[in-house]
Amino acid sequence: MSEQAIISDDWTKNWQASISVKITAVVMWVIIPFGFIIALFLLNNLQNNLIASVDDDAEILLNSARVLLSENNSYDSPKLIASLERKLNKSVYCKIKFSMPDAKPIEMFANECWEKTDTINKKYFFSTLIDGKPQELALILSYRPIENIMVKHRANIIAIMIIMVMVLGLVLTWVIRLLVLRPLLKMVETTRLISEGNHDLRLELNRHDEFGYLAKFANKMLDQVFEQQKNLKHTNLELMKEVAERNRIALELMASHDQLEKLVEERTADLAVARDDALEANKAKSQLLENMSHEIKQDRND
Amino acid sequence: MTERTFRIFLGAGLFVLLYISALMGRTDLILFYIGLLVFEGITNWRVPKVLTLVMHKFAYNESDMNTQELLTPAAEQAGHFNIPFEAERALRLFTALVLAVPLIFPLELLWIIPWVVASMLLLAGLTNICPLVMIFRRLGFK
Questions:
Q1: Minimal Cβ distance to A151: which of B25, B119, B127
Q2: Beta carbons of B139 and B80 less than 8 angstroms apart
């Protein structure tokens, strides 16, 4: 179990086993739909702004062209063209075309909008003073369809959103690993060492959270278990001492019994000898008495 | 190659394809992707399956390997399925169908569907948790 847990910590090698990856996966499955909702909201705002910019930017460009023509007093001055190109690049439009009677039209392009690009054109006519003479000018402003512009914006915003979610996922995995997996692995490692016989070890997690409480109560439980084990060992030792004492007494009793048996046997043997002696004496006495009686009887008869 | 690794490639590949399509202003590139998924789903000649088979043939003697066992899903080996159709094939056909929706119904809001599918595939590959395959297996697919 410990080895599996340690391997799971290395989430670059074992994604499925790591609890931090599982938590991150669940969180990211929730975050991604929200990311898309936010992206949709941003894109909707962007589209509305672009639609509004079509008229606003046209007005800005038209006024700028009128003012610049009047100020520069020339139809094709480089300063006028450079100023208008700057304004063009900031606007939703991608092409400006100036035309004046009896003059070559002037065209300005912004990025990604060339002659063949599919565009929508807006044409304006206005008059201004050039070289002190009133001139009639035509201004054609072209922009790419909003849908085409939005496709790019959508791709960029979604790509940014996905990258952000991936980065968030990695950060989240790292944070979960720090907050959850590290104390968990420490507990797994410590319990492994305790199970292998290091009974003095305890879970050292000075945290005021579930892991801290778990470590505290696990330590308390271990103290109680080992205290009970110690008491049991002590009781066992006492019992063993008592058993040894009883065995010793039993042995002594057996020795005394054997000694008594031996004594009884000796006494019995002595008694048997004494009995035999007594019987022999009795027999001798009887023989003596018989002899004496015979002698007396013989003497009397004589 | 595992199904999971291939899902990462499928997701990332769809992202790249969608991004390139957006930059180039083309909508036909995704048809190749849908075609690949439909081909895999119908023929069951899935890229990870074929690659595993090829790699195994190079790595071991043909007589030593049990190719059928190698390529048979765990559920099928255990015999726990009601529908004799692999969940991975069902995933491909379902994904192809979902990707075809914005092409069939030209509603503006449907542009988001391929992007969602790409992110889901990528996430399923990275985390090895694919809810759709889990649902298919729960429904009884192999």
A1: B25
A2: no
